[in-house]
Amino acid sequence: MKPTTAQQVNTLLYYLQTKQTPPFEILFWENLQKIDFDYSANSLQQLSRFFAAMAKRHIQLPQLLANQSGQALVVALAAYIADYLAKTTGQPIAWYDYDRMSAQLARQNKHPIQSQLPADFYASLTARIGHKIYCQPLKLLPDLLQGKDVLPQFIAQMTQTLYQQSQVNLLQSPEAVCQGYLAKVKTGKLQDDAIAFSTYLAAVNFDHSRDSLVQIDEALSAIQQAFGFTQADYLDFLQDASHQAFCYLLGFYIGVTSSRLANVPVRWVSFAQMYDSLGEEFAECLEHSFVLLFEDCYRTPMLVVTNRLFGLASSFPTTAAEFADILQRQNAGHLAVYPYQDAVSATADLPAPWTSAMQAAGALVASVLSRLSQGEPILPSVYQAHTSDNTGGELTAFNPSNIKLLSPSHTDLDTVTATDTDTLIDSLYQTLHQNPQLAPIIVGCFDSYTNLPMGRTEGVVIEIWVYENPRLQLQLVLPYQSANNWHSLKIYPLVSHQNGAQTALTSEQIAALTTHFYQALLSTPSTQNTAVKTLWQDAYVNQLDSWVLPPKDQRIQQQNAQLVTHFDFALLPILDNQANVNMAVFDYSSIDWRGFDLAKHILQASHHEQSYLQVYVSDNLIKDELYRQVEATEDLYRYGKVVWGVVIKSDAALTEPMSEEERDTPFANHRVSCADILFDASGQARVEDLQAKASQLMDAIGTVNQPPNAAPDVAFYQLHCQDDTSRVFNLAYPASIAATNYRITTSWIWRRHLPNGMLSNSIVPIIIHTTAYQNKAEQGEIMVLPSQLWDKAYYHYWLSLAYEQFGQDYDLLPYIHWQQKYAQDSTDAATQKRLWPKFKPNRASNRAPSREQSSAIVLSDKLENPMSATAKQQGSMQQATIQQATIQQTTGQKLADVKPTLQPSIESTSQVAQTPKAPPPASLSNELTQQLMNDKLRLQTQLSTKDTAKDKKLLVIALGGMLVLIILVILVKIMR
Questions:
Q1: CA distances from 30 to 36, 40, 59, 73, 697 (A)
Q2: How far is 145 from 136, CA to CA, in rounded Å?
């Protein structure tokens, strides 16, 4: 069997690190043994010197690739560079050859033309670092072999990109945010330098033990002593995003570790969810951003961090260990876990109906898992046993045909809504309580969520009811986690949230019952049994741990780690006339512009940043219809929102680097450069769909020779494209091609607002009018978002595209900053009049603290002390769990939990949720929307496109000067 790409690469890396002689030849092996491949900065310096030595000997790629040993050298060094990035940033890495990478792109992209990978040498080896960044390290070799010291810049740029991609989106569900932060320490060590004070946390072993909490306390004490924080420093501390990430990371870890030690089911909820339930009394602050919810109270572990550093709340724990001890005393849970044990028989003596019920439950869940393995939706199911008159009323054998899928008759299985599922679950519990057919056994199951000590996860709820004496009412949950970026599908052991008083069963009896369940689950009829057994062998893990890998992933890791005895990696030929592909395939879905506060960025801009945001109005632009875009600049900054746009066509000059004259003298009468941009005003369209629609439009125009041969809307746009002076604003996408709400607008491109002054990519973030602005009709003007406000990862990706094409990235911002620093961009009065919009002096530093800041200064007793289980407070928390409809609108999660009653809306948060899995919201929360509006209103005081106020001030100053002069003349005459 041919070795895999990962096996061959890992074999090369193994021999580089161990310095053992490989069983196959590697060119210059004796020289390589002098390099310490230990993933240190020094190893990169040694590697650069090695390439420099080859450059002096004029060794180039064709010479190295002429034999097998040279190919092994090339792949080994390229692989080490990519592996260095993965190791130093704590990211997983996967290896692809050309065929696997082409297939991967085809799966990710629905448009085959855009997913084609050039068949050249540089595409022979691709590394996926993390979950979204693809790197082709072979592309570095030509520059390195020419003696260029490009390795440090490449490592720095890629490291920053990886850290940017690993940033957690706080607009996700609270559980997803928690998982995102805990992923940074899943290996036991923090390896993200973007987290503040990461050096202080280097000694912490994040293994979810109490000792790890003590180590965190020691690190917080060291930070407090080193910086001497006081309460007066609290607001300034939170202004830094890395400080906030530091608090979130430790808060989530302290909360999860404490709940695991106390064996108590928990879930994370957001401030918006708590605010909907508790109202104004629940203050907005960082410590309340994410709250740990229990059955009868809530906890705020983020406060442990800030309280330790700033002493905010005297009655709240100041150490993580103390916080965990309080949870152990006050919230210790009774969650019981029943793992699967192979070849173990039940020892307890159980009634025959109970055994039959558990066997029926196992067979029913097997059918559910069979659907799960095939990617089909899990629908509520019920099985009713029957008795036979011929056997004296004994139970008949399990019959799969008696399984009934509860589904709406009018609804397709793939389109069952949350309301439908809720109704079906109610129907299931009515059947359990009423037993209309007088069945001796009824078993039901449905898909839901369950709370565990590690947080909330998905799970199959199983209800086992026996109606004959001795009666049995047992609820079990089979938790699982769907495949995600970190692991494939994972199935956990059975758990029970019921205590002995609720079930009247001993733990030994439940353990024996679960043994019968597992045996029936894995011994179903032959066809189904094969699929279920395979799924079980691939996915079942024997412990409740978010980061333990399922057996399938473990086998892949072990397979990739196997060493090979020969090297036969297939490298494609070097094609000098073949354009190189991008080092990193960018994931546009990783940037959510809906959470981008444009008004806030404009409002808080410094003087130099304000000058960068302005555009210069040349004589050519005044004569152009695009001048209306300049007039709309102020409104776009004030009221606009940011969405992705795709350039359909542009002036040819925009695709080339700026001339030195245009770069050095931006405020001159240069040519007006413009582009037609396609966008979705709602901001919800996928970039790939916008690209496809742009391509379809250009194809339609290119295939029509004369306008009369085309549909009127296509013919109109074709005529527009033929006239360089034609402009369109808010033009509807041709309905004859596709029925969409997309729009096309011609936009003037102020080249200094692009990272390098040119269109390195066709995908640009743009500012468009938003319906929140009602003062005048929208005219459809748009503008490119100034690159200083771009997502850093995309900014560097944009520059890398230019580097690929021209050998330089032409980054403009350093040059612009140099001009500002040394007043090289100073302008005269005439030029100032042509800069748009006009900014008033920024007084942002004098603003009063925001609600979040001011509410965090004085923390109330409710924040300091966990909520007790008094009647009034129970009502508040009951409101938090009952108001599931409101909370679903803000987070797309389920707060209601399952109890075997006729009214599943009255529940406790420690049990399993009945509410179906709802999709995430398409809009921002009311609080965030209000904050955006407030920022925009404040922004109105910062922007002004008129000089009326300035003229009035000058007039007052002039009159005052004349008055002073007259008074001085009079005084001189009197003195004489």
A1: 13, 20, 17, 12, 58
A2: 16
602: Cα within 13 Å, side-chain hemisphere: 34
- Whether 911 shows a pLDDT value over 80: the answer reads no
CA atoms within 13 A on the CB side of 335: 30
Q: With cut-offs at 50, 70 and 90, classify the pLDDT of residue 832.
A: confident
Separation between Cα atoms, residue 901 and residue 637, nearest integer Å: 54
- Give the distance from CA 109 to its chain's centroid: 19
What is the DSSP secondary-structure string of 153-206?
HHHHHHHHHHHHHTS--TTS-HHHHHHHHHGGGTTSS---TTSTTTTTTTT---
Flag whether pLDDT at 376 surpasses 50: yes
pLDDT, residue 237, reads 95
Which of the two residues, 20 and 280, has the higher pLDDT score? 20
Give residue 773's pLDDT band: very low, low, confident or very high (50, 70, 90).
very low
> Which residue in this structure is represented by tokens 């050309």?
98
Summary mean pLDDT of the chain: 80
**Cβ(639)–Cβ(936) below 8 Å:** yes
Confidence label for 417 from pLDDT (cuts 50, 70 and 90) = low
Residue 123: CB partners within 8 Å, gap ≥ 6? 98, 101, 117, 136, 572, 581
CB-CB contact of 800 with 761 (8 Å) = no
E strand or H helix that includes residue 455 = strand 455-466
Positive or negative: CA dihedral 513, 518, 521, 523? negative
Lowest mean pLDDT among 390-399, 826-835, 956-965: 390-399
Which 3 state secondary structure label does DSSP give 648?
Answer: strand
Cross-strand bridge partners of residue 462: 445, 476
Question: In b/e form, how buried is each residue of 512-545, taking b as 16+ CB within 10 angstroms?
Answer: bbbbbbbbbbbebeeebeebbbebbebbbbeebe
CB atoms within 10 A of CB 392: 7
Q: What are phi and psi of 93, to 5 degrees?
A: -135, 140
